[in-house]
Amino acid sequence: MKTTTNWVCTVLMVAALLAPPILEGQAYFRPGQSEDFSQGLFTPELIMRHYREIGLSTEQRATITEAIRILQSGVVDPEWRLMEVSQNLTELLEATPIDEARALSVIDQVHEAEAEIKRANLSALIRIKNALTQEQRDRLMELRRPRFGAVSVGPSWRPGVTTITPSLDLSRRE
């Protein structure tokens, strides 16, 4: 029973960490938060929310949609692999004594699967940015800037970490 419970917890934890970014069309890397290299990238969610304001063309929309499709289909196998090796690691860590060499080997497999998922997400974000004009990128940067007075609560680029970002718009009353 304990092993089944631990397995279920592991599967739910990995699913909770990885599924939301994919299902919401977001990336593992949350542009504008924590990672310097992602500052100039834009999530599909941001673009979809402001597509009229930035004048997104039908061709650009098709390019972005294709980048999302490629991302979603490309991360299914690594996500399954990640869930499997995470379960293996959980089982190894429950043992007494723990086989250190095997546990370290499995954590390397976890890191490899995570890296493959992050790489696919970053690739999609690059394709999305490359589909936009300079004017559209500039406008999205403005739209993404926090406004004073409002509070933004959301996941950071790291799964499971929540950030609170003050914004600068004094006219908004929550």
In short:
64% of the residues lie in helices and 6% in strands. With 174 residues, it is mainly α.
> Strands of the biggest beta sheet: in what spatial order?
1-2
**Poorly predicted tracts of residues:** 7-28, 150-174
Q: What is the share of helical residues?
A: 55-70%
Question: What is the tally of beta strands?
Answer: 2
> What coarse outline follows from CA principal-axis ratios?
elongated
**Strand count, sense and closure of the main sheet?**
2 strands, antiparallel
Cα Rg: 19 Å
Q: What is the element string, with H for helices and E for strands?
A: HHHHHHHEE
- Name the average pLDDT: 76
Number of structural domains? 1
**Beta-strand residue fraction:** 5-15%
Quote the distance from N terminus to C terminus: 47 Å
Structural class: mainly alpha
Number of helices: 7
Description of the structure:
By secondary structure, this protein is mainly alpha-helical. It has one domain. The chain has 7 helices and 2 strands; from the N terminus they run H-H-H-H-H-H-H-E-E. The chain has helices at residues 2-23, 44-49, 51-54, 58-74, 76-94, 100-131, 134-144, and strands at 151-155, 162-166. The chain has a two-stranded antiparallel ribbon. Helix 1 (2-23) runs antiparallel to helix 5, helix 4 runs antiparallel to helix 6 (100-131) and helix 5 (76-94) runs antiparallel to helix 6. The N and C termini lie far apart (47 Å).
